[in-house]
Design a protein that fits this description.
Blueprint (H helix, E strand, L loop, with lengths): L3 E5 L15 E5 L4 H9 L5 E2 L10 H4 L2 H22 L4 E14 L2 E3 L5 H11 L3 E17 L2 E17 L4 H8 L21 E5 L2 H5 L3 H7 L9
Parallel strand pairs: 2-3, 2-4
Antiparallel strand pairs: 1-7, 4-5, 4-6, 6-7, 7-8
Length: 228
């Protein structure tokens, strides 16, 4: 699938051969248990520090799902960076923010707001191929002293195509009774019972679950050796 990337003066994260480099503190800017599990399974040692951010999207972003996904990932990571620095943090840190969207026919399917909304989404997805976008924004923080701070970030988005089986109303109702839908983009969890709804996945499964760790560690290999 196509990959897209934004870079803003991102410091290099790979300097493990230089013993004078300080340890890298890895911070996951998400309370998602799925993202925590994916990152832990990849061998990354990290702490969780999430922050509430405004996820309202302007009309121009609603019309451009990949850009919208990137902007939300940047907002989430950026908010945590501000909170960390407000605590007079010193050291080297990598703050990881992520956002996942389900997109069908150009429409963004976020987390359902009600049972009827979840049912609507699953009916729309039934028998169709949709895209799952997960954007990751990694902010590198260098703060040898509280007053001396340098920042840079790199944002990329991964895409995976997911095809649903043709679903009957009974199958949709049965899945909704399992209670997985309400905090998931697109109203389903591919890592749970929602796997039964899926006929095919073309691309990385971790993108659908919520954190493309393969691409993340390609971009920032030192994250796997972090001592946090």
């Amino acid at each position: 699938m196509e990959n897209e990337e934004n870079t803003q003066n991102a410091p290099e994260a790979s300097a493990s051969s230089d013993e004078s480099m300080p340890a890298l503190d890895v911070v996951l800017a998400s309370a998602s248990p799925r993202r925590k599990q994916l990152l832990a399974d990849a061998g990354v040692r990290f702490v969780v520090h999430s922050s509430d951010v405004d996820e309202t999207l302007e009309p121009d972003l609603l019309a451009d799902p990949p850009e919208a996904c990137k902007k939300l990932a940047e907002r989430k990571a950026g908010a945590v960076v501000q909170e960390v620095l407000a605590e007079d943090y010193t050291g080297m840190a990598a703050v990881i923010g992520a956002d996942t969207m389900v997109v069908l026919d150009g429409e963004i399917f976020g987390k359902p707001v009600s049972l009827s909304d979840a049912k609507r989404m699953l009916r729309r997805l039934s028998g169709r191929t949709h895209e799952v976008l997960t954007a990751v924004s990694v902010w590198m923080v260098a703060a040898p002293e509280p007053e001396k701070i340098s920042l840079g970030f790199r944002t990329f988005v991964e895409r995976t195509a997911v095809t649903f089986h043709e679903l009957t109303d009974e199958e949709i109702a049965d899945y909704l009774r399992k209670g997985e839908s309400f905090d998931k983009a697109g109203a389903y969890a591919v890592q749970g019972a929602g796997a039964d709804l899926v006929a095919r996945v073309d691309g990385a499964l971790d993108t659908v679950i919520g954190l493309p760790v393969g691409r993340l560690l390609e971009e920032f290999p030192d994250l796997a050796g972090s001592p946090s």
